[in-house]
Amino acid sequence: MSNVFLALQANEDTRAIIEAITEDNPHAVVHPSPAMVKIDAEGSLTVRRETIEALIGRSFDLQELHINLISLSGHIDETDDELTLHWNA
Amino acid sequence: MDMNVPKKKLSLKEKYSHMTRGLDWEPSYQSKDDVYPYAKYEGIKIHDWDKWEDPFRLTMDAYWKYQAEKERKLYAIIDAYAQNNGHLSVTDARYINTVKLFLTGVSPLEYMAHRGFAHVGRQLPGAGPRVACLMQSIDEIRHAQTQVHSLSNYNKYYNGLHDFRHMHDRVWYLSVPKSFFDDAITAGPFEFMVAIGFSFEYVLTNLLFVPFVSGAAYNGDMSAMTFGFSAQSDEARHMTLGLEVIKFMLEQDPDNLPIVQRWIDKWAWRGTRVLTLVAMMMDYMLPKRIMSWKEAWEVYFEENGGALFKDLARYGITMPKCIEDITKEKEHLSHQAWATFYNYGAAAAFHTWTPDEDEMNWLSEKYPDSFDKYYRPRLEYWRDEAAKGNRFYNKTLPMLCQVCQIPMLFTEPDDPTKICYRETQYKDDKYHFCSDHCKAIFEHEPEKYIQSWLPVHQIYQGNCFPEGTDPTAEGFDPLAAVLAYYHMNFGRDNLDFEGSEDQKNFDAWRGVATSND
Predict the structure, then answer these.
(1) Domain holding B211: CATH number?
(2) Low-confidence residues of chain B: pLDDT under 50
Protein backbone atom coordinates (compact mmCIF):
# COMPACT_ATOMS: atom_id res chain seq x y z
CA MET A 1 0.00 0.00 0.00
CA SER A 2 1.29 3.49 -0.90
CA ASN A 3 1.78 6.32 1.57
CA VAL A 4 -0.60 9.23 1.92
CA PHE A 5 0.70 12.42 3.49
CA LEU A 6 -0.42 15.62 5.12
CA ALA A 7 1.92 18.63 5.40
CA LEU A 8 1.17 21.36 7.93
CA GLN A 9 2.86 24.59 8.90
CA ALA A 10 4.74 24.18 12.16
CA ASN A 11 3.11 26.63 14.57
CA GLU A 12 1.11 26.94 17.78
CA ASP A 13 -2.18 26.03 16.07
CA THR A 14 -0.85 22.84 14.57
CA ARG A 15 1.02 21.53 17.63
CA ALA A 16 -2.14 19.97 19.05
CA ILE A 17 -3.33 18.85 15.61
CA ILE A 18 -0.09 16.95 14.99
CA GLU A 19 -0.30 15.44 18.47
CA ALA A 20 -3.87 14.30 17.80
CA ILE A 21 -2.90 12.80 14.46
CA THR A 22 -0.05 10.78 15.96
CA GLU A 23 -2.35 9.62 18.76
CA ASP A 24 -5.05 8.46 16.33
CA ASN A 25 -2.65 7.03 13.72
CA PRO A 26 0.07 5.00 15.41
CA HIS A 27 1.40 3.98 11.97
CA ALA A 28 2.02 7.62 10.93
CA VAL A 29 5.58 8.93 10.67
CA VAL A 30 6.22 12.60 11.41
CA HIS A 31 9.02 14.35 9.48
CA PRO A 32 9.78 17.84 10.78
CA SER A 33 11.53 20.18 8.33
CA PRO A 34 12.13 23.95 8.38
CA ALA A 35 8.84 25.69 9.23
CA MET A 36 6.74 22.65 8.35
CA VAL A 37 5.87 19.10 9.30
CA LYS A 38 5.13 16.30 6.83
CA ILE A 39 3.20 13.33 8.14
CA ASP A 40 3.40 10.12 6.09
CA ALA A 41 1.12 7.17 6.68
CA GLU A 42 0.78 3.93 4.83
CA GLY A 43 -2.64 3.41 3.24
CA SER A 44 -4.67 6.00 5.13
CA LEU A 45 -4.56 8.79 7.68
CA THR A 46 -7.44 10.10 9.79
CA VAL A 47 -7.75 13.46 11.55
CA ARG A 48 -10.39 13.31 14.30
CA ARG A 49 -12.15 16.40 15.61
CA GLU A 50 -12.75 14.99 19.11
CA THR A 51 -9.10 14.15 19.72
CA ILE A 52 -8.07 17.69 18.77
CA GLU A 53 -10.82 19.20 20.96
CA ALA A 54 -9.67 17.15 23.94
CA LEU A 55 -6.16 18.55 23.52
CA ILE A 56 -7.02 22.22 22.93
CA GLY A 57 -9.92 22.41 25.34
CA ARG A 58 -12.33 24.12 22.97
CA SER A 59 -14.61 23.18 20.12
CA PHE A 60 -12.85 22.80 16.78
CA ASP A 61 -14.17 22.85 13.23
CA LEU A 62 -12.18 20.46 11.06
CA GLN A 63 -12.24 23.00 8.24
CA GLU A 64 -9.94 25.19 10.39
CA LEU A 65 -7.28 22.82 9.07
CA HIS A 66 -7.33 24.81 5.82
CA ILE A 67 -5.55 27.72 7.50
CA ASN A 68 -2.39 25.78 8.24
CA LEU A 69 -2.52 23.08 5.62
CA ILE A 70 0.39 23.06 3.17
CA SER A 71 -0.21 20.00 1.07
CA LEU A 72 -1.63 16.50 1.05
CA SER A 73 -1.98 13.40 -1.06
CA GLY A 74 -4.63 10.72 -1.46
CA HIS A 75 -8.40 10.76 -1.81
CA ILE A 76 -10.22 12.80 0.79
CA ASP A 77 -13.31 11.92 2.72
CA GLU A 78 -14.48 14.63 5.07
CA THR A 79 -17.39 14.66 7.52
CA ASP A 80 -18.09 16.89 10.53
CA ASP A 81 -16.10 14.52 12.73
CA GLU A 82 -13.27 13.12 10.61
CA LEU A 83 -11.06 13.88 7.67
CA THR A 84 -9.57 10.79 6.06
CA LEU A 85 -6.92 10.54 3.37
CA HIS A 86 -6.56 7.22 1.62
CA TRP A 87 -5.39 5.41 -1.51
CA ASN A 88 -7.46 2.66 -3.06
CA ALA A 89 -4.44 0.79 -4.38
CA MET B 1 -5.86 31.46 16.87
CA ASP B 2 -9.03 31.15 18.90
CA MET B 3 -11.97 30.79 16.56
CA ASN B 4 -15.52 30.77 17.78
CA VAL B 5 -17.16 27.59 16.50
CA PRO B 6 -20.94 27.97 16.70
CA LYS B 7 -23.20 24.95 17.00
CA LYS B 8 -23.96 23.49 13.56
CA LYS B 9 -27.49 23.77 12.24
CA LEU B 10 -26.75 21.70 9.14
CA SER B 11 -24.23 18.93 8.65
CA LEU B 12 -21.31 19.55 6.30
CA LYS B 13 -22.95 17.37 3.63
CA GLU B 14 -26.32 19.10 3.87
CA LYS B 15 -24.78 22.56 3.81
CA TYR B 16 -22.67 21.69 0.76
CA SER B 17 -25.71 20.39 -1.06
CA HIS B 18 -27.79 23.51 -0.32
CA MET B 19 -24.99 25.93 -1.17
CA THR B 20 -24.09 24.34 -4.52
CA ARG B 21 -26.86 22.30 -6.13
CA GLY B 22 -29.54 24.25 -4.28
CA LEU B 23 -28.40 27.50 -5.88
CA ASP B 24 -28.23 26.16 -9.44
CA TRP B 25 -31.08 26.25 -11.96
CA GLU B 26 -31.96 24.84 -15.36
CA PRO B 27 -32.16 27.38 -18.19
CA SER B 28 -35.65 27.56 -19.68
CA TYR B 29 -35.56 30.02 -22.61
CA GLN B 30 -31.99 29.27 -23.81
CA SER B 31 -30.61 25.86 -24.66
CA LYS B 32 -27.92 24.46 -22.35
CA ASP B 33 -25.57 24.12 -25.32
CA ASP B 34 -25.83 27.85 -25.98
CA VAL B 35 -25.25 28.69 -22.33
CA TYR B 36 -22.15 26.43 -22.16
CA PRO B 37 -20.74 26.62 -25.70
CA TYR B 38 -17.32 25.04 -24.92
CA ALA B 39 -18.57 22.02 -22.99
CA LYS B 40 -18.60 19.45 -25.80
CA TYR B 41 -16.07 20.19 -28.53
CA GLU B 42 -13.15 18.50 -26.81
CA GLY B 43 -14.97 15.17 -26.98
CA ILE B 44 -15.38 14.64 -23.23
CA LYS B 45 -18.72 13.02 -22.45
CA ILE B 46 -20.47 13.90 -19.19
CA HIS B 47 -23.82 12.30 -18.41
CA ASP B 48 -24.56 13.46 -14.87
CA TRP B 49 -22.92 16.57 -13.43
CA ASP B 50 -24.54 15.92 -10.04
CA LYS B 51 -22.17 12.99 -9.55
CA TRP B 52 -19.49 15.61 -8.93
CA GLU B 53 -18.57 15.85 -5.28
CA ASP B 54 -16.13 18.26 -3.65
CA PRO B 55 -14.43 16.13 -0.99
CA PHE B 56 -13.74 19.18 1.20
CA ARG B 57 -17.36 20.27 0.86
CA LEU B 58 -16.26 23.85 1.26
CA THR B 59 -19.01 26.43 0.79
CA MET B 60 -18.57 30.13 0.06
CA ASP B 61 -19.38 31.32 3.60
CA ALA B 62 -16.72 29.05 5.13
CA TYR B 63 -14.34 29.95 2.30
CA TRP B 64 -14.46 33.68 3.09
CA LYS B 65 -14.01 33.03 6.81
CA TYR B 66 -10.85 30.94 6.42
CA GLN B 67 -9.35 33.02 3.62
CA ALA B 68 -9.77 36.18 5.71
CA GLU B 69 -7.92 34.50 8.56
CA LYS B 70 -5.07 33.50 6.22
CA GLU B 71 -4.79 37.09 4.93
CA ARG B 72 -4.65 38.56 8.44
CA LYS B 73 -1.80 36.25 9.38
CA LEU B 74 0.05 36.91 6.15
CA TYR B 75 -0.09 40.70 6.21
CA ALA B 76 0.94 40.86 9.88
CA ILE B 77 4.10 38.98 8.94
CA ILE B 78 4.78 40.95 5.76
CA ASP B 79 4.59 44.20 7.75
CA ALA B 80 6.78 42.88 10.55
CA TYR B 81 9.37 41.65 8.05
CA ALA B 82 9.52 45.02 6.29
CA GLN B 83 9.57 47.00 9.55
CA ASN B 84 12.41 44.91 10.89
CA ASN B 85 14.61 45.28 7.75
CA GLY B 86 14.08 41.59 7.17
CA HIS B 87 15.80 41.73 3.78
CA LEU B 88 19.14 42.08 5.59
CA SER B 89 18.63 38.82 7.44
CA VAL B 90 18.69 36.59 4.35
CA THR B 91 21.72 34.30 4.11
CA ASP B 92 23.45 36.42 1.48
CA ALA B 93 22.42 38.72 -1.33
CA ARG B 94 22.65 35.97 -3.94
CA TYR B 95 19.44 34.60 -2.44
CA ILE B 96 17.48 37.65 -3.68
CA ASN B 97 17.98 36.45 -7.25
CA THR B 98 15.59 33.55 -6.59
CA VAL B 99 13.00 36.11 -5.60
CA LYS B 100 13.57 38.01 -8.86
CA LEU B 101 13.05 34.88 -10.89
CA PHE B 102 9.93 34.06 -8.88
CA LEU B 103 8.36 37.51 -9.31
CA THR B 104 9.04 37.73 -13.05
CA GLY B 105 8.39 34.07 -13.87
CA VAL B 106 5.82 32.69 -11.43
CA SER B 107 3.66 35.49 -10.01
CA PRO B 108 2.25 36.48 -13.44
CA LEU B 109 1.21 32.84 -13.85
CA GLU B 110 -0.86 33.10 -10.69
CA TYR B 111 -2.73 35.94 -12.34
CA MET B 112 -3.23 33.86 -15.49
CA ALA B 113 -4.50 31.00 -13.32
CA HIS B 114 -7.03 33.43 -11.85
CA ARG B 115 -8.26 34.23 -15.37
CA GLY B 116 -8.22 30.60 -16.41
CA PHE B 117 -10.31 29.36 -13.52
CA ALA B 118 -12.74 32.27 -13.84
CA HIS B 119 -13.23 31.25 -17.48
CA VAL B 120 -13.53 27.53 -16.82
CA GLY B 121 -15.78 28.16 -13.81
CA ARG B 122 -18.13 29.97 -16.18
CA GLN B 123 -17.96 27.31 -18.89
CA LEU B 124 -18.40 24.02 -17.02
CA PRO B 125 -22.07 23.02 -16.93
CA GLY B 126 -21.96 21.47 -13.40
CA ALA B 127 -22.71 23.54 -10.29
CA GLY B 128 -20.18 21.68 -8.07
CA PRO B 129 -17.09 22.31 -10.24
CA ARG B 130 -18.27 25.86 -10.96
CA VAL B 131 -18.18 26.70 -7.24
CA ALA B 132 -14.80 25.00 -6.82
CA CYS B 133 -13.38 26.89 -9.84
CA LEU B 134 -14.76 30.18 -8.53
CA MET B 135 -12.92 29.65 -5.24
CA GLN B 136 -9.75 28.70 -7.04
CA SER B 137 -10.00 31.75 -9.27
CA ILE B 138 -10.21 34.00 -6.21
CA ASP B 139 -7.33 32.11 -4.57
CA GLU B 140 -5.12 32.66 -7.59
CA ILE B 141 -5.61 36.41 -7.71
CA ARG B 142 -4.87 36.44 -3.98
CA HIS B 143 -1.60 34.62 -4.69
CA ALA B 144 -0.62 37.08 -7.40
CA GLN B 145 -1.40 40.05 -5.14
CA THR B 146 0.27 38.72 -1.99
CA GLN B 147 3.39 37.79 -3.93
CA VAL B 148 3.64 41.23 -5.47
CA HIS B 149 3.03 42.86 -2.09
CA SER B 150 5.60 40.71 -0.27
CA LEU B 151 8.27 41.03 -2.92
CA SER B 152 7.77 44.76 -3.46
CA ASN B 153 9.76 45.20 -0.28
CA TYR B 154 12.84 43.85 -2.08
CA ASN B 155 12.23 46.21 -4.99
CA LYS B 156 12.95 49.14 -2.67
CA TYR B 157 16.53 47.94 -2.23
CA TYR B 158 17.58 45.61 -5.05
CA ASN B 159 17.78 45.63 -8.85
CA GLY B 160 15.85 43.62 -11.41
CA LEU B 161 12.40 43.71 -9.79
CA HIS B 162 11.23 47.06 -11.14
CA ASP B 163 9.14 45.99 -14.14
CA PHE B 164 8.24 42.33 -13.74
CA ARG B 165 4.98 42.46 -15.70
CA HIS B 166 6.57 44.13 -18.72
CA MET B 167 9.43 41.63 -18.65
CA HIS B 168 7.15 38.61 -18.33
CA ASP B 169 5.66 39.28 -21.78
CA ARG B 170 8.99 39.87 -23.52
CA VAL B 171 12.13 38.43 -21.93
CA TRP B 172 13.54 35.28 -23.56
CA TYR B 173 13.59 32.92 -20.56
CA LEU B 174 10.25 34.21 -19.24
CA SER B 175 8.58 33.04 -22.43
CA VAL B 176 9.01 29.54 -21.00
CA PRO B 177 6.54 29.92 -18.11
CA LYS B 178 4.42 32.42 -20.06
CA SER B 179 3.93 30.16 -23.08
CA PHE B 180 3.18 27.21 -20.79
CA PHE B 181 0.23 29.01 -19.26
CA ASP B 182 -0.90 30.57 -22.54
CA ASP B 183 -0.97 27.06 -23.97
CA ALA B 184 -3.22 25.87 -21.11
CA ILE B 185 -5.56 28.83 -21.14
CA THR B 186 -6.15 28.61 -24.89
CA ALA B 187 -7.17 24.95 -24.60
CA GLY B 188 -10.75 23.86 -23.90
CA PRO B 189 -12.14 23.85 -20.35
CA PHE B 190 -11.51 20.15 -19.71
CA GLU B 191 -7.96 20.24 -21.02
CA PHE B 192 -7.30 23.32 -18.89
CA MET B 193 -8.51 21.41 -15.82
CA VAL B 194 -6.16 18.51 -16.60
CA ALA B 195 -3.26 20.84 -17.48
CA ILE B 196 -3.42 23.14 -14.48
CA GLY B 197 -5.78 21.47 -12.01
CA PHE B 198 -4.34 17.99 -12.25
CA SER B 199 -0.88 17.91 -13.84
CA PHE B 200 0.42 21.16 -12.44
CA GLU B 201 -1.43 21.49 -9.13
CA TYR B 202 -1.68 17.87 -8.13
CA VAL B 203 1.41 16.29 -9.59
CA LEU B 204 3.95 19.10 -9.78
CA THR B 205 3.09 22.06 -7.54
CA ASN B 206 4.61 20.42 -4.46
CA LEU B 207 7.93 20.59 -6.27
CA LEU B 208 7.59 24.32 -6.65
CA PHE B 209 6.19 25.38 -3.32
CA VAL B 210 7.21 22.89 -0.67
CA PRO B 211 10.97 22.62 -1.20
CA PHE B 212 11.37 26.14 -2.51
CA VAL B 213 9.35 27.76 0.27
CA SER B 214 11.00 25.65 2.92
CA GLY B 215 14.22 26.80 1.25
CA ALA B 216 13.12 30.42 1.64
CA ALA B 217 12.58 29.75 5.34
CA TYR B 218 16.05 28.23 5.57
CA ASN B 219 17.53 31.31 3.93
CA GLY B 220 15.85 33.76 6.29
CA ASP B 221 13.25 35.06 3.85
CA MET B 222 10.23 35.20 6.07
CA SER B 223 8.09 37.04 3.53
CA ALA B 224 8.55 34.49 0.73
CA MET B 225 8.05 31.69 3.22
CA THR B 226 4.80 33.18 4.46
CA PHE B 227 3.22 33.93 1.11
CA GLY B 228 4.42 30.55 -0.09
CA PHE B 229 2.80 28.62 2.70
CA SER B 230 -0.28 30.81 2.57
CA ALA B 231 -0.62 30.09 -1.16
CA GLN B 232 0.13 26.43 -0.58
CA SER B 233 -2.68 26.14 1.98
CA ASP B 234 -5.02 26.88 -0.95
CA GLU B 235 -3.17 24.40 -3.15
CA ALA B 236 -4.32 21.48 -1.01
CA ARG B 237 -7.84 22.37 -2.11
CA HIS B 238 -6.71 22.91 -5.71
CA MET B 239 -5.01 19.53 -5.78
CA THR B 240 -8.18 17.92 -4.57
CA LEU B 241 -10.11 19.64 -7.34
CA GLY B 242 -7.55 18.44 -9.89
CA LEU B 243 -7.80 14.83 -8.76
CA GLU B 244 -11.58 15.00 -8.55
CA VAL B 245 -11.89 16.25 -12.13
CA ILE B 246 -9.84 13.32 -13.43
CA LYS B 247 -11.86 10.75 -11.50
CA PHE B 248 -15.10 12.41 -12.56
CA MET B 249 -14.26 12.38 -16.28
CA LEU B 250 -13.10 8.77 -16.15
CA GLU B 251 -16.15 7.59 -14.24
CA GLN B 252 -18.58 9.39 -16.54
CA ASP B 253 -17.71 7.62 -19.80
CA PRO B 254 -15.11 5.06 -20.94
CA ASP B 255 -14.59 7.10 -24.15
CA ASN B 256 -12.98 9.83 -22.06
CA LEU B 257 -9.97 7.66 -21.12
CA PRO B 258 -7.78 8.08 -24.24
CA ILE B 259 -8.41 11.85 -24.34
CA VAL B 260 -7.57 12.25 -20.67
CA GLN B 261 -4.47 10.05 -20.95
CA ARG B 262 -3.15 12.13 -23.85
CA TRP B 263 -3.62 15.33 -21.85
CA ILE B 264 -1.91 13.83 -18.79
CA ASP B 265 1.07 12.76 -20.93
CA LYS B 266 1.32 16.17 -22.56
CA TRP B 267 0.99 18.26 -19.41
CA ALA B 268 3.23 16.14 -17.22
CA TRP B 269 5.97 16.90 -19.74
CA ARG B 270 5.09 20.57 -20.28
CA GLY B 271 4.99 21.12 -16.51
CA THR B 272 8.26 19.36 -15.84
CA ARG B 273 10.02 21.41 -18.51
CA VAL B 274 8.87 24.62 -16.77
CA LEU B 275 10.19 23.28 -13.47
CA THR B 276 13.71 23.31 -14.95
CA LEU B 277 13.85 26.84 -13.52
CA VAL B 278 12.99 25.51 -10.05
CA ALA B 279 15.62 22.76 -10.29
CA MET B 280 18.22 25.43 -10.92
CA MET B 281 16.94 27.61 -8.08
CA MET B 282 17.21 24.75 -5.59
CA ASP B 283 20.64 23.48 -6.58
CA TYR B 284 22.41 26.72 -7.45
CA MET B 285 20.60 29.81 -6.23
CA LEU B 286 19.73 29.11 -2.59
CA PRO B 287 22.90 29.92 -0.60
CA LYS B 288 21.69 27.57 2.14
CA ARG B 289 20.40 24.43 0.45
CA ILE B 290 17.52 22.43 1.83
CA MET B 291 17.35 19.49 -0.55
CA SER B 292 18.58 18.87 -4.06
CA TRP B 293 16.29 18.93 -7.07
CA LYS B 294 16.91 15.24 -7.45
CA GLU B 295 15.81 14.53 -3.87
CA ALA B 296 12.72 16.72 -4.26
CA TRP B 297 11.84 14.87 -7.46
CA GLU B 298 12.22 11.55 -5.70
CA VAL B 299 10.04 12.50 -2.72
CA TYR B 300 7.37 14.53 -4.49
CA PHE B 301 7.20 12.85 -7.84
CA GLU B 302 8.52 9.33 -7.67
CA GLU B 303 7.03 8.48 -4.28
CA ASN B 304 3.87 10.58 -4.38
CA GLY B 305 3.18 10.58 -8.07
CA GLY B 306 3.91 6.85 -8.07
CA ALA B 307 1.17 6.29 -5.47
CA LEU B 308 -1.21 8.46 -7.46
CA PHE B 309 -0.72 6.64 -10.76
CA LYS B 310 -0.96 3.28 -9.03
CA ASP B 311 -4.34 4.39 -7.70
CA LEU B 312 -5.52 5.72 -11.08
CA ALA B 313 -4.59 2.42 -12.73
CA ARG B 314 -8.06 1.09 -11.92
CA TYR B 315 -9.44 3.56 -14.48
CA GLY B 316 -6.88 2.43 -17.06
CA ILE B 317 -4.63 5.47 -16.62
CA THR B 318 -0.92 4.75 -16.96
CA MET B 319 2.16 6.68 -15.88
CA PRO B 320 3.08 9.19 -18.64
CA LYS B 321 5.73 7.76 -20.95
CA CYS B 322 7.95 10.83 -20.57
CA ILE B 323 8.60 9.97 -16.92
CA GLU B 324 11.28 7.51 -17.97
CA ASP B 325 13.29 10.32 -19.61
CA ILE B 326 12.58 12.76 -16.75
CA THR B 327 13.99 10.20 -14.33
CA LYS B 328 17.22 10.11 -16.34
CA GLU B 329 17.29 13.91 -16.55
CA LYS B 330 17.08 14.46 -12.80
CA GLU B 331 20.86 13.97 -12.59
CA HIS B 332 21.52 16.72 -15.14
CA LEU B 333 18.69 19.22 -15.31
CA SER B 334 19.79 21.86 -12.81
CA HIS B 335 23.44 21.81 -13.95
CA GLN B 336 22.57 22.27 -17.60
CA ALA B 337 20.09 25.05 -16.84
CA TRP B 338 22.46 27.01 -14.59
CA ALA B 339 25.26 26.70 -17.14
CA THR B 340 22.94 28.24 -19.73
CA PHE B 341 22.03 31.18 -17.52
CA TYR B 342 25.70 31.67 -16.63
CA ASN B 343 26.40 31.89 -20.37
CA TYR B 344 23.58 34.33 -21.02
CA GLY B 345 24.14 36.31 -17.81
CA ALA B 346 24.33 39.56 -19.78
CA ALA B 347 20.74 39.11 -20.98
CA ALA B 348 19.08 38.07 -17.69
CA ALA B 349 17.43 40.32 -15.11
CA PHE B 350 19.18 38.56 -12.27
CA HIS B 351 22.77 37.78 -11.36
CA THR B 352 24.64 34.54 -11.99
CA TRP B 353 27.83 33.19 -10.46
CA THR B 354 29.96 30.07 -10.15
CA PRO B 355 29.32 28.08 -6.96
CA ASP B 356 32.05 28.31 -4.32
CA GLU B 357 34.11 25.29 -3.26
CA ASP B 358 31.72 24.27 -0.45
CA GLU B 359 28.77 24.47 -2.78
CA MET B 360 30.52 22.40 -5.44
CA ASN B 361 31.23 19.78 -2.78
CA TRP B 362 27.56 19.74 -1.82
CA LEU B 363 26.65 19.25 -5.49
CA SER B 364 29.07 16.34 -5.89
CA GLU B 365 27.67 14.72 -2.77
CA LYS B 366 24.10 15.09 -4.03
CA TYR B 367 24.94 14.13 -7.61
CA PRO B 368 27.68 11.50 -7.27
CA ASP B 369 27.02 10.08 -10.74
CA SER B 370 27.03 13.28 -12.73
CA PHE B 371 28.41 16.44 -11.12
CA ASP B 372 32.14 15.74 -10.88
CA LYS B 373 32.22 13.95 -14.19
CA TYR B 374 30.33 16.40 -16.40
CA TYR B 375 29.72 19.71 -14.67
CA ARG B 376 32.37 20.57 -12.08
CA PRO B 377 35.25 20.89 -14.56
CA ARG B 378 33.31 23.39 -16.65
CA LEU B 379 32.33 25.49 -13.62
CA GLU B 380 35.93 25.48 -12.35
CA TYR B 381 37.17 26.55 -15.76
CA TRP B 382 34.70 29.44 -15.85
CA ARG B 383 35.61 30.41 -12.27
CA ASP B 384 39.33 30.47 -13.07
CA GLU B 385 38.76 32.42 -16.27
CA ALA B 386 36.59 34.96 -14.39
CA ALA B 387 39.38 35.34 -11.80
CA LYS B 388 41.73 36.23 -14.66
CA GLY B 389 39.29 38.87 -15.85
CA ASN B 390 37.78 36.76 -18.63
CA ARG B 391 34.22 36.31 -17.31
CA PHE B 392 32.51 34.53 -20.21
CA TYR B 393 29.31 36.00 -21.65
CA ASN B 394 27.78 34.29 -24.63
CA LYS B 395 26.82 36.88 -27.26
CA THR B 396 25.06 34.65 -29.76
CA LEU B 397 21.42 33.66 -29.52
CA PRO B 398 20.41 30.05 -28.85
CA MET B 399 18.04 27.90 -30.88
CA LEU B 400 14.76 27.42 -29.03
CA CYS B 401 12.39 24.47 -28.83
CA GLN B 402 9.17 25.26 -30.69
CA VAL B 403 7.01 23.86 -27.87
CA CYS B 404 8.62 24.49 -24.46
CA GLN B 405 10.61 27.49 -25.80
CA ILE B 406 13.66 26.49 -23.73
CA PRO B 407 17.04 26.92 -25.46
CA MET B 408 18.44 23.65 -26.79
CA LEU B 409 20.37 22.89 -23.62
CA PHE B 410 19.15 19.40 -22.79
CA THR B 411 21.20 16.35 -23.64
CA GLU B 412 20.18 13.01 -25.09
CA PRO B 413 18.46 10.92 -22.39
CA ASP B 414 21.23 8.32 -22.61
CA ASP B 415 24.21 10.51 -23.46
CA PRO B 416 24.89 13.56 -21.29
CA THR B 417 27.67 14.69 -23.66
CA LYS B 418 25.41 15.17 -26.67
CA ILE B 419 22.78 17.91 -27.09
CA CYS B 420 19.37 16.52 -28.00
CA TYR B 421 17.96 17.93 -31.26
CA ARG B 422 14.74 16.85 -32.95
CA GLU B 423 13.07 18.38 -35.97
CA THR B 424 10.00 17.99 -38.09
CA GLN B 425 8.68 19.40 -41.35
CA TYR B 426 5.24 20.99 -41.37
CA LYS B 427 3.90 22.62 -44.53
CA ASP B 428 6.81 24.73 -45.86
CA ASP B 429 8.81 25.05 -42.67
CA LYS B 430 11.12 23.07 -40.49
CA TYR B 431 10.52 23.12 -36.71
CA HIS B 432 13.00 22.29 -33.94
CA PHE B 433 12.51 20.54 -30.61
CA CYS B 434 14.44 19.76 -27.45
CA SER B 435 13.08 16.23 -27.11
CA ASP B 436 10.87 13.49 -28.50
CA HIS B 437 8.10 14.62 -26.16
CA CYS B 438 7.96 18.25 -27.30
CA LYS B 439 8.09 16.99 -30.88
CA ALA B 440 5.15 14.62 -30.28
CA ILE B 441 3.12 17.45 -28.72
CA PHE B 442 3.75 19.62 -31.79
CA GLU B 443 2.87 16.87 -34.22
CA HIS B 444 -0.49 16.34 -32.56
CA GLU B 445 -1.46 20.04 -32.73
CA PRO B 446 0.83 21.71 -35.29
CA GLU B 447 -1.54 24.58 -36.07
CA LYS B 448 -1.38 25.66 -32.46
CA TYR B 449 2.38 25.52 -32.01
CA ILE B 450 3.41 27.11 -35.31
CA GLN B 451 2.02 30.29 -33.73
CA SER B 452 4.57 30.23 -30.87
CA TRP B 453 6.12 33.64 -30.15
CA LEU B 454 9.75 32.54 -29.94
CA PRO B 455 11.93 35.28 -28.43
CA VAL B 456 15.01 34.46 -30.51
CA HIS B 457 13.07 34.47 -33.78
CA GLN B 458 11.42 37.71 -32.77
CA ILE B 459 14.77 39.34 -32.02
CA TYR B 460 16.15 38.27 -35.41
CA GLN B 461 13.02 39.59 -37.10
CA GLY B 462 13.64 42.98 -35.49
CA ASN B 463 10.56 42.88 -33.27
CA CYS B 464 12.37 43.28 -29.94
CA PHE B 465 13.95 46.72 -30.19
CA PRO B 466 12.50 49.94 -28.74
CA GLU B 467 10.28 51.83 -31.16
CA GLY B 468 12.24 53.95 -33.59
CA THR B 469 15.42 51.82 -33.39
CA ASP B 470 17.39 51.69 -36.66
CA PRO B 471 19.22 48.35 -36.80
CA THR B 472 21.08 49.49 -39.93
CA ALA B 473 22.67 52.49 -38.19
CA GLU B 474 26.44 52.39 -37.79
CA GLY B 475 27.59 50.90 -34.49
CA PHE B 476 24.15 49.39 -33.78
CA ASP B 477 24.38 47.22 -30.67
CA PRO B 478 21.65 44.57 -30.84
CA LEU B 479 22.06 43.33 -27.24
CA ALA B 480 21.76 46.88 -25.86
CA ALA B 481 18.64 47.46 -27.97
CA VAL B 482 17.03 44.21 -26.80
CA LEU B 483 17.78 44.99 -23.13
CA ALA B 484 16.27 48.45 -23.58
CA TYR B 485 13.16 46.81 -25.04
CA TYR B 486 13.06 44.48 -21.99
CA HIS B 487 13.45 47.52 -19.64
CA MET B 488 16.62 45.94 -18.21
CA ASN B 489 19.38 48.22 -16.98
CA PHE B 490 22.73 47.07 -18.25
CA GLY B 491 25.29 46.73 -15.46
CA ARG B 492 22.70 46.88 -12.68
CA ASP B 493 20.15 44.13 -13.33
CA ASN B 494 22.37 41.73 -15.26
CA LEU B 495 25.97 40.32 -15.27
CA ASP B 496 27.82 38.43 -12.56
CA PHE B 497 26.86 38.72 -8.91
CA GLU B 498 30.51 39.40 -8.10
CA GLY B 499 30.92 43.16 -8.27
CA SER B 500 27.19 43.87 -8.61
CA GLU B 501 25.43 46.81 -6.99
CA ASP B 502 23.25 44.34 -5.06
CA GLN B 503 26.32 42.68 -3.59
CA LYS B 504 27.92 45.99 -2.56
CA ASN B 505 24.73 47.46 -1.11
CA PHE B 506 23.82 44.36 0.85
CA ASP B 507 27.28 44.19 2.41
CA ALA B 508 27.27 47.88 3.25
CA TRP B 509 23.75 47.83 4.73
CA ARG B 510 24.32 44.67 6.70
CA GLY B 511 27.48 46.28 8.04
CA VAL B 512 25.47 49.30 9.17
CA ALA B 513 22.82 47.06 10.71
CA THR B 514 25.31 45.14 12.82
CA SER B 515 27.71 47.92 13.88
CA ASN B 516 27.56 51.45 15.27
CA ASP B 517 29.35 53.17 12.38
Answers:
(1) 1.10.620.20
(2) none
